[in-house]
Structures are given as C-alpha cells and as structure tokens.
C-alpha cells in the first residue's frame, strides 16, 4: 500500500501558523531553471517569500532562480519594505561551491532582506551554515531551522523587530525636527 503524502502547509490558502494569506500563481510552481533543477515560489502575507528547490543546483540555474525571485519581489513588495526569504531545502540536491558563493553574495547585497531562513535541510547544510556563521563567512542574518512552522515564527519576530526599529527611527527624526523648529 502506497503512503499518501500530505501537501506542504504553504500550499494552503492561509498559513496555519500565522493566519497570513499565501499567494502562489501557477506560473510560480516548478519553474525550470536548468535540467533537473526546478523551484516553486510563494508569498506569505506581505513580507515573506518562500522558495522550494528540487534537484541539483548549478551556477547558471541559480542565477536564473535568483533573478526570478527578485522579479517577484519587485512586483509584489513596496519599495521601502523589508522582507524575509524562507528556503525549503528538503528536496534540494547538490549545491557546488560557486553556486553557494553566488547565493551568499546575493543575500549580503540586498539591504531590504531582513534575513534568510533555511529549513528542512540536510545535516551537511546545517553544519555548513553553522560553521560559516561561527567563522564569520556569513555576515547577514541567516538562520537554519528544522521546520516551516519555526521559520514562520522567526520571520514574524524579525519583521516585528524591523518594524519597531523603523518606527523608533521615525520617532527620533520627528522629535529632532520638532526640536530644530524651536530654534528657527
């Protein structure tokens, strides 16, 4: 008897862990970027973007996938908003060094990306990210977690802190402007 697999929780219309709406049109599903490497994309709420790669990743395929993700973000996120990237690595195959280096560079150059959260990855991926953080090869907010649920909770926490930080900055600017007006 064949075991029936359950759908990924992000294939539902509403996230069961946050009650945020999940959006993923058909043209974002199993997009082929190279032979044997496909990626599906989802937008969760307003600021969370999830991708799930399938197969072995090589440099050209990863370049195309990053460009596609950036296009989605440009089209579906206001210019001044932070966002979070979730990476479901559960069906990812080999990722050669040059592809990892490209991904790392893309993450570090994007000032609006609040963090990247990998989940469902292999022990090797977890160890790689852990060591890269320990020896300071990764300078951005990168998390390696076990589940989608944990990833959603950390995403909401990071977004909440970013929003509070931006609000505080706005209050400081407003107070400074008010202070300066008393001298003008």
Q: How would you characterize this protein structure?
A:
With 184 residues, the protein is α/β, with parallel strands linked by helices. Helix content is 42%, strand content 21%. It is built from four helices and seven strands; from the N terminus they run E-E-E-E-H-E-H-E-H-E-H. Helix 1 packs parallel to helix 2.
* Average pLDDT figure: 83
> How many strands in all?
7
Helix content: 40-55%
Computed Rg: 19 Å
What structural category do the secondary elements indicate? Answer: alpha/beta
User: What is the CA-CA span between the terminal residues?
Assistant: 81 Å
The unreliable regions are: 167-173
Global shape = globular
Helix/strand order, N-terminal first: EEEEHEHEHEH
Q: Give the oligomeric state.
A: single chain
Biggest sheet descriptor: 7 strands, mixed
What is the number of helices?
Answer: 4
Q: What proportion of the residues form beta strands (DSSP E)?
A: 15-25%
Nutshell version of this structure?
The chain is an alpha/beta fold. It is built from 4 helices and 7 strands.
SSE order and pairing:
Blueprint: E1 22-23, E2 31-34, E3 37-44, E4 48-54, H1 59-76, E5 83-88, H2 97-109, E6 113-119, H3 123-134, E7 142-145, H4 148-181
Parallel strand pairs: 4-5, 5-6, 6-7
Antiparallel strand pairs: 1-3, 2-3, 3-4
